[in-house]
Design goal:
The protein is an alpha+beta fold and about 140 residues long. It is built from three helices and three strands; from the N terminus they run E-E-E-H-H-H. A three-stranded antiparallel β-sheet has the order 2-1-3, with no helix packed on it.
Length: about 140
């Protein structure tokens, strides 16, 4: 849609009384001095984005396709976590006493882990024991 103008730019060159060379796109800047006209061809438009012209661009596209077609496998650190037994709460609570009780029972039964797979620590187990006293009737 936005095509560059296909006009030729004119640049004027002149030398002042001190011997300095100047360039301008305005001929009047030279004053009464003698000017030389220099025609400048516009820069060619860039190649279309969907057709790489260089071998480097083609190699880059090929490598990108190879990488993007591989399945994403998350990194593993150390031994994989053992499969978790099915929980009552699914690791969530909705604010009701029953859901808080189920969540606390899942923690104490070892059916849940912290985000990132880390095992529930002593503080988490103590909190679950308090929740059982408060929410399990």
């Amino acid at each position: 849609m936005l095509a560059p103008a296909l006009t030729h730019a004119e640049i004027y060159k002149w030398t002042d009384a001190n011997g300095q060379t100047h360039y301008s796109s305005n001929k009047a800047d030279a004053g009464k001095g003698a000017t030389t006209s220099i025609k400048v061809d516009p820069t060619p438009p860039p190649p279309p984005l969907n057709s790489p012209t260089s071998q480097a661009a083609q190699d880059h596209d090929k490598r990108f396709k190879q990488i993007s077609e591989k399945p994403v496998v998350p990194p593993t650190y150390g031994a994989p976590n053992p499969p978790m037994p099915r929980s009552r709460s699914g690791g969530r609570e909705d604010g009701s006493d029953a859901s808080r009780c189920a969540l606390a029972q899942d923690v104490l039964d070892g059916k849940l882990r912290y985000r990132g797979g880390k095992a529930i620590d002593q503080y988490g187990r103590e909190t679950a024991q308090n929740d059982i006293r408060m929410f399990c009737h």
